[in-house]
Amino acid sequence: MDPHRFEHDGNSYEVLFERTPEGWVARIRCEDDDTVQVMAFPNGVGFDPENARGSLIAGCQAAVARHAGAPATRH
Question: From the first residue on, what is the mean pLDDT of each consecutive set of 10 residues in the chain (75 residues)?
Fold first, then answer.
């Protein structure tokens, strides 16, 4: 699936999608500071079967809106 770009609160984001046997993994990179959020979307949960890309994009944008400004975790 092609990457998706969007802006939120003045920051630019790029999302890379990866198909896995269990669903989709999205890597959301903030282009301004290179932080990355990784989101997993299991098969069948919350997807529009006719528009999986739109469902993934909506989920990623909602995650950024909800977690914007949250401190990074270190492991």
Answer: 93 95 93 88 77 90 79 60
In the chain, the N- to C-terminal Cα span, in Å, equals 29
DSSP the chain: ---EEEEETTEEEEEEEEEETTEEEEEEEETTT--EEEEEEETTSS--TT-HHHHHHHHHHHHHHHHTTPPPP--
Whole-prediction pTM: 0.80
Listed by start position, the domains of the chain span 4-67
Residue 45 main-chain phi, psi, to 5 deg:
-95, 110
